[in-house]
Structure formats: C-alpha cells, structure tokens
Specification:
4-stranded antiparallel sheet; alpha+beta
C-alpha cells in the first residue's frame, strides 16, 4: 500500500467539505465535517462526562445515551449545510438548523441520519471521489446556514 493511500486531509476533516454520491440520496449534497473532528471529540467528551457515573458502570454507556450523543454531534458539529433536498411540492428545502435537528433525531428520517454519517465518514477517510469541493472552494451556503450558531440541546 502506498503512503498516499493512507493519508487524509486534516483541513477537510476539521473545516468540512461538500459530499455528493451519497447512497440513496441522488442529487443531494451535504456539507459535513469528518467524523472524529476535534470539535466533535470535544463535544462527545463533554456529553459523556455529563452522564452520571451511576448510568455508566465501568465506563460503559447505554445504546440510548450513545445515540443521543451522536445525534447532538451530528447536529451541532458535523452537518453544516445541504443542497438538493426538496419539499413534497418540489420546492427547494433550504438548510435550517431546526429542520436538521428533526431529520437527525426523528426515526422517520432514519435515512437522512444515515446519509449524514456516511458523508462524514467519507470526509474523515478522505474518499476523494465523493468530494465536490472543500469549504473554501464550495458554492455559497444555503439560506439559513449558520455553522457558528448557538448549540441547541437534544
């Protein structure tokens, strides 16, 4: 294996990148940070530490707590924007943090959550064929995009 095949782009992981070619999401692009980016690690650590010790015997947390932590990370850190999503009347659906929270946490939108995880894994592992552009070279964000907006609680 060549060294170039195992290198990743830390800048893309931290700043985010547009990803297309998402399975079952034809025509949709997501701007995401890579799974495991520093900001995600920081949030995961703080959420884990906030779980009472009585609910994490031997350092283990329940699947429910793991899912809740991942949902918060996906919403507050990982997902930055989207393009190509439409309402049922075929009008474009602009990125909105409140809608993103619903799509990530509502079991009825399980496929969306899986798409975000897939895209973030793609960025984390630098699978270059799926990238459209890095944040610095990407198209303008959708209306309502506000990656620096205050975090919400889940």
């Amino acid at each position: 294996m060549k060294l170039s095949e195992i290198k990743v782009d830390p800048a893309k992981i931290e700043a985010g990148a547009w990803v297309d070619g998402i399975p079952e999401f034809e025509g949709v692009r997501l701007k995401v940070r890579g799974l495991g980016c520093k900001e995600m690690q920081k949030l995961q650590r703080s959420l884990f530490e906030a779980i009472p010790r009585s609910r994490r015997p031997k350092g283990k947390v329940s699947q429910e707590d793991q899912d809740r932590i991942l949902d918060r990370c996906l919403h507050e850190v990982v997902l930055l924007d989207w393009e190509g999503l439409q309402n049922d009347d075929d009008t474009p659906l602009a990125y909105d943090r409140a809608k993103a929270l619903t799509f990530i946490t509502d079991p009825a939108f399980k496929k969306f959550r899986e798409a975000v995880v897939w895209a973030a894994d793609t960025v984390a592992n630098d699978k270059a064929e799926a990238f459209e552009a890095t944040v610095g070279n990407s198209a303008a964000s959708s209306a309502g995009s506000s990656p620096g907006a205050p975090a919400s609680s889940i």
